[in-house]
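User: Some background: our group keeps a shared notebook of sequences we're curious about, and every so often someone picks one and asks for a predicted structure to add to the entry. Today it's my turn. The entry only has the sequence so far, pasted here. Could you supply the structure so I can complete it?
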Amino acid sequence: MPQINSCSIEDQNNMIPDDEDDGSRLNLNENISLIGIRGEIHQWALKYQIPHNALNELLHILRENSSLALKDILPADSRTLLKTSRRNNIVPIGNGEYWYYGLEQALKNALSQVRNLPSNIFLTFNIDGLPIARSTKKEFWPILCKIKGLDMSPIVVAIFFGSGKPPLEPFLRPFVDELLKLLRDGFKMQGRIISVEIRCFVCDTPARCFIKGTVGFNSYHGCMKCTVIGDFDRRGRHMSFPRTDMPLRNDNSFRNRLDPDHHKERSAIEDLPIDLVNDFTIADSLHLLDLGVMKKCLLGWTSGSFNFHTKWSARETQNISRKLMQIKSTTPYEVHQGRLRELDSLHFWKGTEFKIFLLYYGPVILKEHLPLEVYHHFLILFCATTICYSDTYSSYRHISQKLYVDYIERFAELYGQDVVAATFTTYVML
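Assistant: Of course. Here's the predicted structure to add to the notebook entry:
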C-alpha cells in the first residue's frame, strides 16, 4: 500500500512562492488602507460639516480618477458614506412639525468622542425660540443639552419648526419621559452603566415662562421668584414691581398652585424631580446687570427719560465720551474685555461694555457729571456688584443683598416707582 506523505499547514504555507506571498500581503494591506480612507473621509465630512453636494462631488472625483482601487471602497452617494438614516421621525404637532432625535442616542453620539467615559454626567438643558427671518413667523424651537465638564458643542435632542410656539404637552412629553427613564436607570455604553443627573435649565425669560406653563414676565403675577403683584403704568405702558418684601416662591408652592394666577397650564416639566424655582437659572449678570440696570441708567441719563434733574446736556455727553476714550487708551489689558465706544453709540453697546463701565469707568467718570445724591446711589450698585463678582469679598455676600434692596428703594425715590421693572426685584432674590 503506497504511503502518503502528510505535511503540516506550516509546511504547506512554506511551499507558497515568496513573490505570491508578498503580493497577497500587499493586497491585504492595501485593502485595509483603503477601508481606513473611507472612515477618515467620513470623520472629516462630519468634523467640518461638509455639504452633501460637495461631498458627492469629491466621491465622484476619487472614484473616477484615483489610481487606487477606490471605486469598490467608496460609495457614489454621500448618504451611504455618512450612513444617513432613511427614517426622519418627523411628526406634525400644532402649527408645525416636530423631530425628536432622542436624548440617550444624542448622549451616546457625543460621548463616543470621549476617551475616558465618566461614571455619571450632569446635564444642563436649554429650550428657546429661534426665528429664521423677520419676514416670516416661522421659527425653530430646539431642545439642547450640555454635559458639564466636557468641552463640546451643545447636543441637539429635538427640534420643532413651525409658526410660533409649539403646543406644550406634545413638545415636552417625549423628552420628559425619556429623561425620567435615564434618571432612574442610566444608560449602557461600552459595557458600563452611566448615571444621569439634571444640573439645571437655562432659558431666557419668555422661554422659561413657556416651558413652565406660567404667565408672562410682564403680567401682574409674572415674577418668577416672589409673589409680588405688578403695578401697570399706563403712561409708560409697562409693568413695574415696586415691592421687595414679598414671600419667595419655592418648589412646594409652585407645585401646589398656592398662587393660581401665576399659572396658565400644567407642564410636563413638573414630572421631573427638580426644584421648579431654583433649578431654572434667571440671575445671570449679563441680562440683569449689564444689559439691564446699567443700560437703563445710561439711557435715562443721556435721553432724560428719568427726569430733567439727572439728564445730561449734549456737551456733558460729549465730555463723558471724550473721557471714555482717554481712559480706554490707558486701561490695562486685564480690564479691557471688549471695544468700548462713545455714548452716541450707546444703543449698540454690548454687554461687556456696560460691565466695564459699571465696575471700572463709572465710579471715576460719573462723580463729576451726576448730582451727589444720584452718584452715591450709583455707588451702592457698584459696591453690591463688586462684592458678588470678587472672591476677595465673599465674606460680605450677605451685605450685597441689603445693598440691592436699598438701591431698588432709592431708585424709586429718585426716578419714580413706575421704572422699577422685574429686573430690579430679581436682585433681591440673588
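Suggested note for the entry: The longest helix spans residues 18-47. Residues 19-81 form one domain.
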